[in-house]
Amino acid sequence: MRSVVFAYHDIGYVCLEELVRLGSEVSLVITHEDDPTENIWFRSVAKLAGRLGLPVFAPVDVNTPAWIERVASCRPNFLFSFYYRKLLRRDFLEIPTHGALNLHGSLLPRYRGRCPVNWVIIHDEKETGVTLHYMTEKPDAGDIVAQRAVPIDDTDTALSVYGKLTEIAPVVLREVYPLLCAGKAPRIPQNHGQATYFGGRRPEDGRIDWRRSAREVFNLVRAVTRPYPGAFAVWRGKELKVWRASIAACSQSSGLPGVVLQATPTLMVQCGCGAVVLEEVQFDSAMPCPGSVWASRHGIDVGDQLQ
What we know:
Radius of gyration: 22 Å
Number of domains: 2
CATH topology of the largest domain: Rossmann fold
Number of helices: 8
CATH superfamily of the largest domain: Formyl transferase, N-terminal domain
Helix content: 25-40%
Mean pLDDT: 96
């Protein structure tokens, strides 16, 4: 079976690798140029395609007549999208004889849209997963072929959850690809009434709102910590990154969110409900350090307030 693959990021990498291993004739790979303003911590689909001897391109705008014609000329049986970041026009979806499928990083119909791994942690979910589904003009809304779930623990960050998804994504593909080729794969309509949708996130969305509960602040920190831009507060007009935090085992309440309850031996900050310990912080352009060390260096004392 011939395939055209749109792919990016680590999941794009492992799924392209698995598709070739399964014997698919990949006629064309379309990916993205890396954004120089983004922290590129993931493997390169372009480099993998090059090593495999596959034709690979990274057009700025793929939704043009020229690229639609190029894909159609490959006469693919399947079109696969693995973490490709752009929505494909309907013209693309009508090209493959056996279907156009996307692998999404959540348990659809929940968490459609961008950045699902970050959003599930922010919303305190206990599990997430991957979903292989047929593509439609509406993002992440097509019939489901297969899903697999992974647990989310309090020790998880977005990076570790993404690692779990990267492990199971090729497993799902391995299980269903033969069924797709034989025309025997499931096709389960989504319950659109249960759908939730979330958009992309910006670095400024990481600002901590101390009026939130300690649990919500804790979840935000682990959802956007490295390799993402990080959660942050403001102290005397400068940014204080919070790379690690924990929920404090205390019942103290000053009534003022953002107030320092304790500076040593740990840096504890009041939230709207409960408090968090700032385990690792980074102030301005300095090196990361324990919160208590930062507090000592800058004369932070009980009663001071982070913004």
